[in-house]
Amino acid sequence: GRKLGYTFNHGNLHNVSLGQGQEVVAEQALDVAAKEGHWVILQNIHLVAKWLSSLEKRLEQLSQGSHRDFRVFLSAEPAPCPESHSIPQGILQNSIKITSEAPTGIHANLHKALDNFSQDTLEMCSQEKEFRSILFALCYFHAVVAERRKFGPQGWNRPYPFSTGDLTISVNVLYNYLQASSKVPYDDLRYLVGEIMYGGHITDDWDRRLCRTYLEEFIKPEMLEGELCLAPGFPLPGNMDYNGYHQYIDDALPPESPYLYGLHPNAEIGFLTQRSERLLRTVLELQPRDSSTGQGAGGTQEEMVQTLLEEMLEKLPDEFNMAELLARLEERTPYAVVALQECERMNALTAEMRRSLAELELGLK
What we know:
The chain folds into three domains: 2-94, Rossmann fold, CATH 3.40.50; 106-266, Region D6 of dynein motor (Helicase, Ruva Protein, domain 3), CATH 1.10.8; 301-364. Helices cover 53% and strands 6% of the residues. The chain is built from 14 helices and six strands. The strands form two sheets. The chain has a four-stranded mixed beta sheet, covered by helices on one side. A two-stranded antiparallel sheet has the order 5-6. Helix 2 (52-62) links the parallel strand 3 (39-43) and strand 4.
């Protein structure tokens, strides 16, 4: 396909990362894709809030007469607060919405860390026992440092963007070292992982010390002797296959608690308080904005709608009797024809109003 100055993965896919004046490129991609039946991926639309109203109108135009295979995918990060919501309602209402949330809890994080590998990964090293044991310990280490962020300053003094890339690179380093040497270089591994791979993100000295301490507990000679516990009640598993490790996590991992991170149970108080406040704040955001004080917001809103509904039904006139009007008509003058047409339209309008009001009343009940 013809390139238009954006990432062009293959002939039927246009991938545009928005920001830094990429709106024109995105519009070009939409025009081409709509004609040819291609797919368009517009990433990070939250970065171009002022352009989104134009995008809404453009998508509305392209919804008519475009190729039947034409599709548009939009991605955005969540807004930090309701005041920052910038995506137009028209786009949201006409879209199939999918949210992708990071796993929560050590159980989900450990499974996700292990998902980056496969049975082939476990079998690729000549020192199989050592490789599998250290790989599982690194997965647990990654799950702990990633999920520890939820405890706020009690977890890390600063939040760090640890990613699965840090884990996979660490496992590659582990493989290279074990292939090159018959002895396990524990000190070298701990230094590379704690000071470079993960430590490269860390800017606080105490956080760096904490990362180093985790690795000193998780990666040491005792791990090959079956004497190492990654957490209270969770021993490092022996030599298993890939599915066996997943099953071991489900069977042996204790329930979620700060003990799994090496923290005191009181560390969870702040996290749970923050989560409760966020939940209640979200519930309050869903309440009607024009409710009066002193009464339940939902009830007040419904009562007000019910009152307006009854008033409108009382004022709604009866439909015109078209047969009677036609019988009274002596001559079909232009004025009379227009009057009849308006009566028909008025009948259609009042019938729809009566139907929808009755439906609304059923909904309220």
